Amino acid sequence: MAWTPDPSRWHGLFTLLLAGMLAASTTQAAEKIEPSTEMTPAGGGETACPECPANPGVHGILGGPHFVVADPRTPAANAACEACHGPSREHTLFPTRIASIRFGEGSHLTPEEQSAQCLGCHQGDHIDWASGTHAAEDVSCVSCHSLHAGRDQVLNRVTVADKCVSCHLRVRMEINKPYRHPVREAAITCTNCHNPHGSPAEAMLVRETVNQTCYQCHAEKRGPFMHEHEPVQDDCMHCHNPHGSNHENLLLVRAPFLCQQCHSDHSHAREAYDFEDLPLGSGSRQSRVVGGACINCHSQIHGTNNPGRRSMRQ
Question: Where are the domains of the chain?
Answer without folding.
Answer: 48-151, 154-213, 223-304
